[in-house]
């Protein structure tokens, strides 16, 4: 009589659904807003476009608001 085919552990493992791990988030936007209110990072930047025709150097001030990450 015909024999049963041997089980392949890898194939059996692939048949099982993937486990999804979700870590709980302790990030609190209200706490961030209250902690970093009125705190701003200021960066001075230069855009050097002198390599292109009619290019120029432009200076910029970049403000990064910590309270809402903008």
UniProtKB/TrEMBL annotation:
<feature type="domain" description="DM10">
    <location>
        <begin position="37"/>
        <end position="70"/>
    </location>
</feature>
<keyword id="KW-0206">Cytoskeleton</keyword>
<dbReference type="GO" id="GO:0043014">
    <property type="term" value="F:alpha-tubulin binding"/>
</dbReference>
<keyword id="KW-0963">Cytoplasm</keyword>
<dbReference type="GO" id="GO:0007052">
    <property type="term" value="P:mitotic spindle organization"/>
</dbReference>
<dbReference type="GO" id="GO:0000281">
    <property type="term" value="P:mitotic cytokinesis"/>
</dbReference>
<dbReference type="InterPro" id="IPR040193">
    <property type="entry name" value="EFHC1/EFHC2/EFHB"/>
</dbReference>
<keyword id="KW-0966">Cell projection</keyword>
<dbReference type="GO" id="GO:0005879">
    <property type="term" value="C:axonemal microtubule"/>
</dbReference>
<protein>
    <submittedName>
        <fullName>EF-hand domain containing 1</fullName>
    </submittedName>
</protein>
<keyword id="KW-0969">Cilium</keyword>
<dbReference type="InterPro" id="IPR006602">
    <property type="entry name" value="DM10_dom"/>
</dbReference>
<dbReference type="GO" id="GO:0060285">
    <property type="term" value="P:cilium-dependent cell motility"/>
</dbReference>
<dbReference type="Pfam" id="PF06565">
    <property type="entry name" value="DM10_dom"/>
</dbReference>
<dbReference type="GO" id="GO:0072686">
    <property type="term" value="C:mitotic spindle"/>
</dbReference>
<keyword id="KW-0282">Flagellum</keyword>
<keyword id="KW-0677">Repeat</keyword>
């Amino acid at each position: 009589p015909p024999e049963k085919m041997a089980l392949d552990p890898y194939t059996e493992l692939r048949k099982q659904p993937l486990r999804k791990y979700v870590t709980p988030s302790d990030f609190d936007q209200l706490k961030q807003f209250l902690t970093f209110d009125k705190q701003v990072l200021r960066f001075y930047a230069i855009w050097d476009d002198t390599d292109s025709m009619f290019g120029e150097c432009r200076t910029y001030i970049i403000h990064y608001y910590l309270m809402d990450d903008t």
